[in-house]
UniProtKB/TrEMBL annotation:
<feature type="transmembrane region" description="Helical">
    <location>
        <begin position="152"/>
        <end position="172"/>
    </location>
</feature>
<feature type="transmembrane region" description="Helical">
    <location>
        <begin position="12"/>
        <end position="37"/>
    </location>
</feature>
<feature type="transmembrane region" description="Helical">
    <location>
        <begin position="49"/>
        <end position="67"/>
    </location>
</feature>
<protein>
    <submittedName>
        <fullName>Amino acid permease family protein</fullName>
    </submittedName>
</protein>
<keyword id="KW-0472">Membrane</keyword>
<dbReference type="Pfam" id="PF00324">
    <property type="entry name" value="AA_permease"/>
</dbReference>
<dbReference type="InterPro" id="IPR050367">
    <property type="entry name" value="APC_superfamily"/>
</dbReference>
<feature type="transmembrane region" description="Helical">
    <location>
        <begin position="410"/>
        <end position="430"/>
    </location>
</feature>
<feature type="transmembrane region" description="Helical">
    <location>
        <begin position="88"/>
        <end position="113"/>
    </location>
</feature>
<feature type="transmembrane region" description="Helical">
    <location>
        <begin position="385"/>
        <end position="404"/>
    </location>
</feature>
<feature type="domain" description="Amino acid permease/ SLC12A">
    <location>
        <begin position="22"/>
        <end position="373"/>
    </location>
</feature>
<dbReference type="GO" id="GO:0055085">
    <property type="term" value="P:transmembrane transport"/>
</dbReference>
<dbReference type="GO" id="GO:0016020">
    <property type="term" value="C:membrane"/>
</dbReference>
<feature type="transmembrane region" description="Helical">
    <location>
        <begin position="267"/>
        <end position="287"/>
    </location>
</feature>
<keyword id="KW-0812">Transmembrane</keyword>
<dbReference type="InterPro" id="IPR004841">
    <property type="entry name" value="AA-permease/SLC12A_dom"/>
</dbReference>
<feature type="transmembrane region" description="Helical">
    <location>
        <begin position="229"/>
        <end position="247"/>
    </location>
</feature>
Amino acid sequence: MKEDKLQLTKSLSLFGLVLFGLAYMTPMIVFGTYGVLYEESGGNVASSYLFALIAMLFTAGSYALMAHKYPSAGSSYTYVTKVFGDRIGFLVGWTILLDYLFLPMVIWLIGGIYLEAMAPGIPEWFWILSFIVVTSVLNLIGVNVAKKVNLVLMLLQIVVIVAFCALAVMYINASGGVIAAPSTDSFTGGNFSLIFSGAAIACYSFLGFDAVSTMAEETENPKKNVPKAIMLVTLIGGIIFVASSYILNSAFPDISVFAAESAAADIAKQVGGVIFSSIFVATLIIAQFTSGVSAQASASRLMYVMGRDGVLPKGIFGKLHATFKTPYMTILMVGFIGLLALKMDVATSTSFINFGAFIAFIFVNMSAFSEFFKLEKNERTLGATLIHIVFPSIGTIAVMKLLISLDSNAVMLGCIWLAIGLCYLAYLITKGQKLKMDIKES
């Protein structure tokens, strides 16, 4: 079969797509980043997650709207290109690569940190390399295999999350306390700047709802199922994040005695003993594995579409495996970039990733807004005004606030990445290369 005749295979139902998004999002990440987020938000973890959920729900609505109209694997890159043109679309696609390319790296980094804590005799680099190799093999074989693995491991995550929260409630009752957020964990406490700083990092936990749209060309009835999956993944994940952090914050209003990057493991030991702590850490690592599978798959699809369109070298990025019909070159590239986890820390890398995501979120909201003016006059109803004008506007304002709340180093690195993209775009324009979209209709 010739290379240009190969296409991604449609094999994902709505359930499979939601499972993919939740696996990408990794509900247990609320525990994995809890200590880091606690420090950044000044203890306002639940409030930070709540604000992040609000911002993400409005933005998810814009993604759902655009996914219905343009069912392509290109996600934000596709949507912005169709609305604002090739050049702006390329820059948004380039910027979102910060999210998709480096998110697997962070996932593998967190998994490596916890595994090294469990087995100090084995170096972190060994675990990171193991993650990269195994997830790459699964993604090379195809999403059907990954879907089966995700189902089993996602059920395990849910069980452990429920058990952790139940044990925390028992701990609160045993100590004579009540399930109530501490006074600092409130919008009325005047800690808005801390809450927004925390929310800027908390949004890392939500990354996954947008990745659902990258699987559009492998989804049955994508115009219907992709928008539904985007909203379901955002809502389910947000409820888990807010509820879990609320309970943990009530049980342990002060976690300064724990190491920030592995605080959840220490809390698990405190509420459930050594055995539960071991189960928790093992499940968190497994959760990181499933998230890594989904994140690598999503990143490879974005680069594949950009390669197929010719804005990245087609001979490398636009190729599918003849047997598995997967973008094998981009899968391997994401694995290679994951090696940067050997030199990065969690706080910096999550902020760095969120810069790219926030830029893409803003432009997708703006795209949904612009689509309103393409409607016929009789289509500009109150409902259309809400979903095209009001909701995207709220989403844009909320995400802009999160963007300016990011760590200054993350903003600087993000701007450098964007500057590189501008130089590459200028190079393409100088060559006279036409940026051409190839939207796969379903």
